[in-house]
DNA sequence: TCTGGGGTCCTAGGACCC
DNA sequence: TCTGGGGTCCTAGGACCC
């Protein structure tokens, strides 16, 4: 805990849904749900209009549909979210060199490193007001909630208090009074399992948590968690804002619409995932020693099998071969709903295979039977709801929905007013996926005057890159 | 119509080493 | 011929976060 309120936490309000409403004017003021749209999808973000109907993050999309059938259900456009996130993070770094992103829509900023003259409550309140205004302008209308306090704990809790579009500064010395009446679940790290353990010893609020001894807490929730909670209950938190964090693992996983049993199919899918993971490793110039296969069975039980190599690898065939070996150790006969491949124990990228074992895209060419089955099972739809498209004569728009050989498009962008809704054949050559950044940079922002600024070279989505959330 | 995907951190037992 | 104790690595599972 610092003497001055110099830790700031920003959280963009209903982030994914807000970006969709920005880029799709007809959805402004309407319920929007972003997440998986398949039979086993869950909600990533719901707009506040959808939350009014009881739609929440992590709820199954099926339940969200029943609660709010008239909402727009969209798959995520992560390139767009990453772009907006980048804009926000740049803004924060103008405020202070010490910025710690927690996710695309959240970050801590250390104002002590910002060289401010005035870190009084009034001073930092003014800083936050300016930040919210700048953020609103730079993002084309998004809102963020800001919390400021003497620690990460307090700043994070504060940003949540007046959502959306909130601004809460917790004056030094008032932290414990703020926390005491709150439920223990406000403390990050206290989820359902920990809350239940605490409930069993009569602890529901932070005030009650404060009355438990450290030894007792360690007995109830374990060593690390217990000691941490003992301090958090007293708002005793001096964790630093850490700007650069290195990745510890890279992984890919997919849940399938139906449970899979066929061995060759599972192996073919693992090959694809191994290719994806190693491609990401190579792009990041990383390699790893431990390969992990994750399997979720029909009964939702989750199993992992891992193996550590003597030297790090980023080789697709090495990872694929290990993945096949590892899955053989799991009884998958009852059906597999999720399959994943991960690599951890990361090292800076090392040149390997000096003797010419060159990379190949995939290792499935020798199994054409599985290829067909893979194509049937893979959920990447060519036209997923929400994706950006362009029609030769009607111009830019986005996919409302598709099915039975038809795709319905709403013609509008952030700048063009809502236009017509039209339906096409899914193989209409005049309709193509639209690369990011060509129409969706709002006017009157710094980016608009400098076209290339808002258009990162990686922002072009491949046609088949419609991976569901 | 149950329960995503990408991560981080912790625990606990066994192997292995000094 | 009763056997300590610490440290580190590996593996599997689980809680939690957004």
TrEMBL record:
Task: Describe its partners and assembly state.
Answer: Monomer.
Give the protein's function.
Answer: Poorly processive, error-prone DNA polymerase involved in untargeted mutagenesis. Copies undamaged DNA at stalled replication forks, which arise in vivo from mismatched or misaligned primer ends. These misaligned primers can be extended by PolIV. Exhibits no 3'-5' exonuclease (proofreading) activity. May be involved in translesional synthesis, in conjunction with the beta clamp from PolIII.
> What InterPro entries does the entry give?
DNA/RNA_pol_sf, DNA_pol_Y-fam_lit_finger_sf, DNA_pol_Y-fam_little_finger, DNA_polymerase-Y, DNApol_IV, IMS_HHH_1, Rev_trsase/Diguanyl_cyclase, UmuC
Q: Where in the cell is it found?
A: Cytoplasm
Give the family, as the similarity comment puts it: Belongs to the DNA polymerase type-Y family.
Query: What is the protein name for this chain?
Result: DNA polymerase IV
Recall the GO molecular function terms of this protein's record.
DNA-directed DNA polymerase activity
Task: Show the segment(s) annotated as Disordered.
Answer: 415-469
Which residues does the entry assign to the active site, renumbered to this chain?
106
Q: How is the cofactor bound, as the UniProt entry phrases it?
A: Binds 2 magnesium ions per subunit.
- EC numbers listed for it are 2.7.7.7
Q: Which cofactor does it need?
A: Mg(2+)
| Keywords of this entry | Cytoplasm, DNA damage, DNA repair, DNA replication, DNA-binding, DNA-directed DNA polymerase, Magnesium, Metal-binding, Mutator protein, Nucleotidyltransferase, Transferase
Does the record carry Nucleus as a key word? no
Instruction: Spell out the Pfam families in the cross-references.
Output: IMS, IMS_C, IMS_HHH_1
Question: Which parts of the sequence are marked as the site Substrate discrimination?
Answer: 16
Q: Which residues bind Mg(2+)?
A: 11, 105
PANTHER family to which the protein is assigned, alphabetical: DNA POLYMERASE KAPPA (PTHR11076:SF33), DNA REPAIR POLYMERASE UMUC / TRANSFERASE FAMILY MEMBER (PTHR11076)
The reaction(s) catalysed by this protein are: DNA(n) + a 2'-deoxyribonucleoside 5'-triphosphate = DNA(n+1) + diphosphate
